[in-house]
Amino acid sequence: MWKRAEQTGSTEMRGVFVETLQEMMDQNKKVVALEADLGGASGFSKIQKSHPDQFLNVGIAEANMVGIAAGMSMRGFVPFIHTFAPFAVRRACDQIFLEGAYAGNTINIYGSDPGVCVAQNGGTHTTFEDMAIMRAIPTVEVYDPADGVQLRWLIHSLEHKKGVHYIRAARKGMPDIYAEGSTFESGKANVLREGKDVLLVAAGLGLKLALDAADQLAEEGVEAAVLDMFTVAPFDVETFRQQAAGKKLIVTVENHSVTNGLGSAAADILAEDGSGIRLRKVGIENRFGQVGSQDFLMKEYGLTVEHVYQIVKTNL
Amino acid sequence: MDKEKERQLKKGSAEIRLETLKMLKWRGYGHLGGAMSIVELLSVLYNDILRYKPEVPAWEDRDYVVLSKGHSGPSLYAALALHGFFDKELLYTLNEGGTSLPSHPDRLRTPGVDATTGSLGQGTSVAAGIGMALRKEGRSGQKVYLIVGDGELNEGQCWEAFQFLAHHKLHEVIVIIDYNKRQLDGKLTDIITPFDFHKKMESFGFRVFDADGREESSIDEALKAAGQVTDSAVCVLLDTVKAQGVPYYIEREDSHAPKFDAKAKEELDKTIQALEQYVAEGGR
Q1: N or C: which end of chain B has fewer CB within 10 A?
Q2: B119 and A98 in contact by Cβ < 8 A?
């Protein structure tokens, strides 16, 4: 069961990743962390110090890291690998596909700083297409957790779970959405807010935008439901259909390209159902990334509360 | 190596070559050249080196074989069938819809196949991962035999994996290079010159053992010597010939994955008959 956080604050995601893995490693010697020379960026270098026997820095060799993880999983190890999201997904795509998913191995991938979270690393280090790529690979589970509580639960949930699991998460702080100790269900979306007029479907960085836009809309009498689709693949079709029924408009909000991400998954279902409900996607529209602060990039690419609000107002 | 042992290994090679050629001829096409150049290696591995239990393919104490040059699946399948992992009749389902013997090895489909390979270079990292797992488990003596093609070494990922093996002195993985001098489109020296693999691997931090890949005794000796190394990464460099043991294809440029015309079938029949006779006479 989950509950909303009562206080507003933020939690550093990489810290959660590292601490949770350390907790798991204390109990389970088969849990290992692999890094491609970004231990200083991910905080995984702390794991190297605390659990040297359960850590490997493979050097700047992402494809090799994926293969090593696959091989270790064949002996029952539970690998968690980290690199920046674009290098995990774009550079090691064939390895993730073949030695991960196709070969039936287990690899848990932390692709950090997806989308606009990239900030100062700029366009070369930006991925707006990671979910599009990963959700097209059969059996791969794609997660876009919104806060530290959800991330902590997610990492624990993968300890005994076979398969390829892709977690796209910021390294730095994300606003707290859920109360400490909340639990979730993989593949099950959370209805954070009910409302009869509009359905906002979001994940990750988009969730807070959707929640704040819903507050703003409420002041004008527009009732917006908000769905946290933190498991982007497999998509929770059932909850989505239940929540979409009877709405005048659906708006998806994602820190990702509008091509083949969260919004596209929702659009597929609406179209195949012949629902006739209008859908608008808030996300990155056929553009590359660029350098800038996260705030700058969010404004630049329309990932703002104001933009979500305007999209609802102009399409309702 | 004593004569009797050598006779057994040569007979083993003949059997693998024979079953592979019969299967490919029945299929009408296939990856002949690279499958043939590892036949002697497979005979030595399955007859004299590997620990395995065909009735328990996933036996946790087994040695692993990672055939990174996955297109050579047919001769691996022949070796597995001959060593009890599945019935020889299954060989005549190669590449059929729904078969458990796909063109490239698949660990989820075929008993005895340890790694899924085919996208070249990737088996090197998987072997490194299995080797590292064995080390972390403290399993001394258990090995991973990684078979890579010389053309496959065009792939950068191989060298990423080799750096890792060398850095960790991961002797649990024995890298075996099938140096048959040809890749799909022609000679290595016409496509990407390999220069000196022995020096290359040595400079990467490997102990390198050279062997004549056409001679079982030479392969056996090199693998056993490599298996004794505990202070460095190890490599066995096999000097082989593409389409080895199949005279008609040795000089041909289309030996990688030929489709057999009437002439080719006639020539394959000659080789098959000679092998059948050799096997029937017990390798004498």
Answers
A1: C
A2: yes
